[in-house]
Amino acid sequence: MAKESFDRITDDLFADEVRLGRPKSNPHSRQVQLKINKQKQTLRDKQKGLKRIELKVDRQLFEALNKLSQEQEISRGELINQLLHAQLN
After folding, report:
1. Of 22, 35, 69, 81, whose CB count within 10 A is highest?
2. Cα separation of 66 and 60, whole Å?
3. Contact at 8 Å (CB) between 69 and 79?
4. Inter-axis angle of helices 76-88 and 59-72, to 10 degrees?
5. Angle at 54 between CA 36 and CA 75, to 5 degrees
6. pTM higher than the cut 0.70
7. What would the pLDDT profile of 6-59 be if each residue is shown by its tens digit?
């Protein structure tokens, strides 16, 4: 049986091979991992009944939102959600 350099499934063929660094804990590349995690996050949000909106604001408003969210110890998204609910009710 020939040994392929990219085949890392059969450990006994690579027992004497020294590889530096932290061992891989995930078979996917980082880019694929990010894509999978984003899909899972989107699915969790959908199951919770959440919808995504995107908003562009000027720098001063952005910094004010960040400051207020840090003071209240909540995320910026939660703060915006609270402010919108307060305005609509």
Report:
1. 69
2. 10
3. yes
4. 100
5. 75
6. no
7. 555 665 665 666 667 777 788 888 999 999 999 999 999 999 999 988 999 999
